[in-house]
Write a structure and sequence with these properties.
The structure is a single chain. With 222 residues, the chain is an all-alpha fold. Helix 2 packs parallel to helix 4, helix 3 crosses helix 8 and helix 4 packs across helix 7. The longest helix has 29 residues.
Amino acid sequence: MTTALHLSSQLAVNVLDARSLLSAFGVLGVGVVLFAETGLLIGFFLPGDSLLFTAGLLCTGSADRGLRLSLAPLLVAAAVGALAGSQCGFLLGRRAGGALLARSSSARLHEGARRAEELLERYGHAKAIVLARFVPVVRTVLNPMAGALRVPVRTFTVWQVTGGLVWSLGLTLAGYALGSSVPNVDRYLLPMVAVIVALSLMPLAAELLRSRRDAKTKEARG
């Protein structure tokens, strides 16, 4: 009976809510969610940023008395999920080309693909692969797009590992650091998650501003 109730609670998990996912699946869920979000087009809606930050917060035990995660296994799960997912998405893109994306009717997914292709064209492979990690949906579709566009395997691997580690470990440790230093931090969890997501977009925003400024400078000189 107890097992049935536990299974029922897991099946009722809200996949859009970070705390619900963590309560149901713990550290293992972090790895699985990040793999799905970065490696499978069907995972584009999953809450990667908020999941990492909330998981780091829960490692301190200050955010939820009923749930506490261990930091070391969490960091390993986050890194493995993010890196393996990205590489899987890239390999799927190389084999299937644009067929996988063409089968989807999601306007949000197609918009993410357009932005991913723009990133690759505007900033080059290395910078685009790193920046995409910090943009929801784009971090899902850029990997198969890079594969379909025949980005060299070595180039993709080096920069997806770099960006993946900065993103996954950085957000997790940010949540852990904040939870360790701020008492009763769970009261401010939703606003903080919103701020973290906004901050994660700053590298891309900075690059866009810089490119526009450079374009205006060239026009003025021309």
